[in-house]
Amino acid sequence: MFGDYWILWYSISNSYSVINSDFELLLDTYLTSKTQTEFSNSISNYISVSDSLNLSETIHNYLKDCNNPYSLPNISSETLDTSHRNISKYYLFGTKRILIHYSSELVLKTVHPAIAHYCKKHTEAPDVIFDIFLKHNNLHLFKNGKLLSCVPKREYHHMQGKFIMHLLCSLHHKTEQDWIGTLHGSAITDGNTSILFVGKSGKGKSTLSALLATNGFELLADDVSPLLSENEHIYYNPSSISIKKGAFELLQPLVNNFDNLPIVEFNATKGQLKYMPCAKPKYNHYPCGAIMLVNYQPQSETIIEPISIKHVLETIIEDSWLSPNPKHAQQFLDWLQKVKLYQVTYSNTDCVSSEISTLFKQLNHEN
Amino acid sequence: MKKENNTDKITRKQAISKMGKYAAITAVGTFVILNPLKSQAQSPPDAGGDPFS
User: Nearest CA of chain B to the CA of A181: how many Å?
Assistant: First the structure.
């Protein structure tokens, strides 16, 4: 229970439901009633039999929707075709050597720009080899010769997500089953704890992360923030901050060498992006003290205020991958109970940095 | 989470028996069901965009 809300997790569908206390009471009564008559008798005398029937039907339909079986996407059994290895890039992440073969410049643009700052001249034998290629309009991702993902080209962001997941597994010596999830948001650390900035697309979470990364804080993860089961910490994601064209003007005077960052565009009609590399934090992982919903509003004052769990979950769940493992679902809910939930509305960049700095101090003081 | 003592059961029973028609109908209309992604994903640069077209 979170304040006025109950969060229910349905194992069959791996779905999360937010309900209020009255609904929880009705649901509990419905589930413990053996018959419709018993349910009608248990609820208020002020509710007519026909209204009671309608309530039962609504609850029944709700439960049906919550129990749609969870099915994983099919992975085909294709074998690696090395004839697509047209461009090869070698990356060094600390001591981990990664080699990625791409089939074309366009395919390269889906992954390389975000990790280009780790690209090095090929020297020693790689620890891990990825192959990414387009074949029959499907994007294929292989790791050490094993197919990880095959998606229609329009769903390239799923291939990117799977690639990042497996890059993180390689860098942090984990398997996919070790993670509670990859949360859609950007994590910033002050060296002690971290804050996860979340928000729907275009609300300025990456822009705020870029601002904070130039104001004394460090980027832990942009866009995909991985949460590990073992310690419930957010782990370092080496991807650069992806900045959309709309934020170029705001960041240009604030970020060193911003003009020198190359503009990446898939083609002339799609959005332009810049990838801003950031220094790696001292440690690979940090606890998360707060989740902050980002709300950029031109001309607004900086306001940090508490928000409901409903608001947070509505923002992050459908854009995050969360493990269907019951242990991980329980951990996710327990973790949510521990973190503070806020919304930041801002327009002034100096002011928002100062307020977030104060919040970090508070979080550290409380721990 | 949910308490199991008798006092609580009585309170909950009383609460459900006193819940008004409109409170009940409103309550069952306010639920939210949220489904996480089935596989990891990054944000697309522009929703629905096709960089290969």
Answer: 8
